[in-house]
TrEMBL record:
<dbReference type="GO" id="GO:0016787">
    <property type="term" value="F:hydrolase activity"/>
</dbReference>
<keyword id="KW-0378">Hydrolase</keyword>
<dbReference type="InterPro" id="IPR051454">
    <property type="entry name" value="RNA/ubiquinone_mod_enzymes"/>
</dbReference>
<dbReference type="InterPro" id="IPR001539">
    <property type="entry name" value="Peptidase_U32"/>
</dbReference>
<protein>
    <submittedName>
        <fullName>Peptidase, U32 family</fullName>
        <ecNumber>3.4.-.-</ecNumber>
    </submittedName>
</protein>
<dbReference type="Pfam" id="PF01136">
    <property type="entry name" value="Peptidase_U32"/>
</dbReference>
Amino acid sequence: MIELIATVESIQQAKDLLEAGVDTIYFGEDQFGLRLPMSFTREEQKELTELAHQYGKKASVAVNAIFHNEGIALVPEYLTFLKEIGADNIAVGDPGVVQIMKNPEYSIPYRYDAAVLVTSSRQVNFWGKRGAVGAVIAREIPREEMKILAAGVEIPIEVLVYGATCIHHSKRPLLNNYFNYIEKKESVEKRRGLFVSEPADDDSHYSIYEDMNGTHIFANNDVSLAPYLLELTEMGIPQWKLDGVLAPGENFVEVAKLFVNARNEIEAGTWTTEKSASLELQVRALHPEVRGLEAGFYLLNPEDVK
């Protein structure tokens, strides 16, 4: 069975996604999770978890920040809270969190999510032997490498099938530093829609924003693996991620509906090449006009990935 995991930006969007057929909603707060569409309060996280369970679905919470000393000290209290509200699993990137969860008082099923570091089945299995129930593989893995990885893993893996790819993260407040340097007071939040470009490339358009975790820069184009869903299924990849961090609103829910329908048809054996091509066009029509859409690293020759 294929599990569809989707980020959420509001309580209402979470309800819409669950009604659309998404299996797991993914959320959290900026103190502990990276690049979330919305940072939710504790009460809202409790409400989201209860909502998911009302629909017979799962709630997954982002605890995938990389923590400094003062940050890791706050993690036990947050894990206690997540256990109390019944979160089904968490995404973890910092081994320090895994170490904390060796204490049964704080233990929650976790999926290993260390971004660009997760590139081999051996690494996935390493964390599987240390309690991980799944792993989020890097978004920079080409198809041929993905086939090898998927064939060797011992726990389920998650692949991004729609959404933005972060290409740089710094704990430094790079935007604020820049505006301070030019003596301007400007908003650096995601909703501002800022971007940076290569000096010699007018077509480059890297979205950038800053929050309490630092500065985040995203690739020119977002990822859509809509034409390749059957391939992913044949590889044995059971978890598909829909990331709406830069694709907000009702259109994200409509995109989720398209992927739910595709999943259902693939599982029923009624998916065709023609339907795959149509899905790609429908996803493009719903995608934000200011952002491009492509297959990302998926179609690249592994030798070209540096």
